[in-house]
Design brief:
Helix content: over 70%
Radius of gyration: 14 Å
Low-confidence stretches: none
Order of helices and strands: HHHHHH
Mean pLDDT: 82
Structural class: mainly alpha
Largest sheet: none
Distance between the termini: 29 Å
Number of helices: 6
Strand content: under 5%
Length: 103
C-alpha cells in the first residue's frame, strides 16, 4: 500500500529513497547508550516523512526484540501527528501479520 503510492510519483519516490538512506544511517548508529541523541534524530526524520521512518522502525523492532524499549524512548520528542502516524503504521503491521499466533 505504501510503496504503490510512492511509486506513482517520481518526486515521492525520490523522497522515499532519501528518507530510507537517512534512516539506515541512523539505524547503524543507534544503540541503547545514545538514546538521547537518537531521540533528536528520529524527531527530525519523522517530521519530514513519518510513514517511511516509522515503517522502518517497526520492522527493526520486529527483528530485534531487545531494542524495543530504546526505540520507544527515542520517539519521546516526536510531535502528536507523528505519533498518530506511528499508531497507524503499527496497526497496519499488526493487521498485515501473516503468522498470527493468538496464544
Amino acid at each position: 500500500m505504501l510503496t504503490e503510492s510512492y511509486l506513482s510519483n517520481l518526486s515521492l519516490l525520490q523522497a522515499m529513497i532519501e528518507t530510507q538512506t537517512q534512516v539506515s544511517k541512523w539505524q547503524r548508529r543507534f544503540s541503547t547508550e545514545n538514546v538521547r541523541q537518537s531521540t533528536r534524530q528520529v524527531s527530525k526524520l519523522a517530521s519530514g516523512n513519518s510513514l517511511i521512518v516509522f515503517d522502518i522502525i517497526i520492522k527493526q523492532a520486529k527483528q530485534y526484540d531487545n531494542q524495543i524499549e530504546s526505540l520507544n524512548q527515542s520517539m519521546a520528542n516526536c510531535n502528536e501527528l507523528s505519533l498518530d502516524i506511528f499508531a497507524y503504521t503499527l496497526l497496519r503491521h499488526i493487521s498485515d501479520a501473516k503468522d498470527v499466533n493468538p496464544y
